[in-house]
TrEMBL record:
The keyword Repeat applies. GO terms for molecular function: RNA binding; zinc ion binding. Belongs to the PPR family. PCMP-H subfamily. Signal peptide: none annotated. PPR repeats lie at residues 53-87, 154-188. Transmembrane segments: none annotated. This is Pentatricopeptide repeat-containing protein. InterPro entries: DYW_dom, E2_motif, E_motif, PPR_At4g14850-like_plant, PPR_rpt, TPR-like_helical_dom_sf. The lineage of its organism: Eukaryota, Viridiplantae, Streptophyta, Embryophyta, Tracheophyta. Pfam families: DYW_deaminase, E_motif, Eplus_motif, PPR, PPR_2.
Length: 461
DNA sequence: CTAGGGTTAG
């Protein structure tokens, strides 16, 4: 209850007046602390509890899960098993949420196996969590297997599957599912429509997207909100209809937010529109002066047109505002262990082999006709250095490691914290062909499935 | 009277 209202002080006050808090009160307090961001305090209280039942364990695991400290959530889960605590549905759901967040497919599969082995009934909630986990790990085949096997489905279940399909580039399938959902008389809500509109966007169905958008209010009585406006701007932007996107923003009945201008800015990057890109960036910075993503996108637009003056002015502004680019980080899961790579990272124990593989990649890609896209390197450096800088992007390191360490033909799965850069996207397409390897990259907000030299995003992301 | 505390879709 206190967690919901985010009143840690009030909760703490009430709690401190209890003469002898029992398991229930302590569990509630663990939840309240975790829910208000005080996860470490929650953990201290949890560790000091004289008895901990499964609900208490779950409160703590959910606490970690909700603030994105997913690794700790999984660690606590394994500790829970070591101590022989009975694992219930809620805990499994929290653990699946953590796996989804990390993109940890192997761990998620293990949990699914655990469910089957222990004959835990797949309820609507649990099934939905499984679908979400597989979707966010880029395994839509398994996500849909779970979906179709479920007897009872609610709006969360449908929305989750639709979101997964849209996120993984299967826009048409997403919309088919929506039609089926309507046939089954499940009422869509505002979250469902985010997936519907994203589905239209990735499928390039502009008019249909516009129809669905209008139907929200007309047929379902759902008022479109920021996210929906953002989707339509993305829809127009992806189709290259930048004027329509601008007109749409100008006609918004609510004040355009960072996401609205961000969608426009991204379209400007793809369609190389400097003037509009500068305008969108100004709008974003008016709302959020330290938005590093906007600076990086604008810099990319300048660099793409070899406008080095523009590039260095962006660098100056960033310095003046005290903004720095979030460092890129790519993660690859291998044998249940997560390997992290940062830009130019030489700290991996198998670094020597990785370096050799990077050399081989470079040679074989060049033979296949790959030319480094040096345009998007953030700052103006010499051409040769640039090519070198690109080689060290975190996803290339992770892919090189995957090629070395994973068995022949095993899909390489990468999770990245930022957007994929143009050069890495290009290079990965080549790698998928030259090395005959499927590569799945989850970036900040979507998936790229690379196969035979092509990507599921159709080169728009 | 013996509950109450934990979980899913953007």
């Amino acid at each position: 209850m206190y967690a919901e209202f985010a009143l840690p002080d009030a909760a703490r006050r009430v709690y401190s007046e209890l003469c002898c808090p029992d398991v229930v009160a302590q569990t509630a307090m663990v939840g309240a602390l975790a829910g208000s961001g005080e996860v470490n305090l929650a953990r201290d209280l949890f560790d000091g509890m004289p008895q901990r039942d499964p609900i208490a364990w779950n409160a703590m695991i959910a606490g970690y899960s909700q603030v994105g400290r997913s690794k700790e959530a999984l660690e606590l889960f394994s500790l829970m098993q070591v101590e022989g605590v009975r694992v219930g549905e809620a805990t499994i759901v929290s653990v699946l949420t953590a796996c989804a967040h990390l993109g940890a497919l192997a761990q998620g599969k293990w949990v699914h196996g655990y469910i089957q082995k222990n004959k835990i009934r797949i309820t609507v909630t649990l099934g939905t969590a499984l679908i979400d986990m597989y979707s966010k790990c880029g395994d839509m085949r398994r996500a849909m297997e779970v979906f179709w096997s479920m007897g009872e489905k609610n709006v969360y279940t449908w929305s989750s599957a639709m979101s997964g399909l849209a996120m993984n580039g299967a826009g048409k399938e997403c919309l088919e599912l929506f039609e089926l959902m309507k046939q089954e008389h499940v009422q869509p809500n505002w979250v469902t429509f985010i997936s519907v509109l994203r589905g239209c966007s990735v499928a390039g169905l502009v008019d249909k997207g516009r129809e669905y958008f209008d139907s929200m209010r007309d047929e379902y009585g759902i008022e479109p909100w920021y996210e929906h406006y953002g989707c339509i701007i993305d829809l127009y932007g992806r189709a290259g209809r930048l004027d329509d996107a601008v007109n749409f923003i100008n006609a918004m009945p609510i004040k355009p937010h960072v996401g609205a201008w961000g969608a426009l800015l991204n379209a400007c990057r793809i369609y190389k529109n400097i003037k509009l890109g500068e305008f969108a960036t100004r709008k974003i910075l008016e709302l959020e002066s330290k938005n590093d993503g906007a600076y990086v996108l604008l810099s990319n637009i300048y660099a793409d047109s070899r406008n080095w003056k523009g590039v260095s002015s962006v660098r100056e502004s960033m310095k003046a505002e005290g903004v720095s680019k979030e460092p890129g980080c790519s993660v690859i899961e291998l044998g249940g262990k997560v390997h992290e790579f940062f830009v130019g990272d030489r700290s991996h124990p198998r670094y020597k082999e990785i370096e050799l593989m990077l050399g081989e990649m470079s040679r074989r890609l060049r033979l296949a006709g790959y030319v480094a896209r040096t345009n998007e390197v953030l700052f103006d450096i010499e051409e040769e250095e640039k090519e070198d800088a690109l080689c060290w992007h975190s996803e290339k390191l992770a892919i090189a490691f995957g090629l070395i360490a994973l068995g022949e033909g095993v899909t390489i799965r990468i999770v990245k914290n930022l957007r994929v850069c143009l050069d890495c996207h290009d290079a990965t397409k080549f790698i998928s062909k030259v090395f005959e390897r499927e590569i799945v990259v989850r970036d900040r907000n979507r998936f790229h499935h690379f196969k035979d030299g092509a990507c599921s995003c159709m080169d728009y992301w």
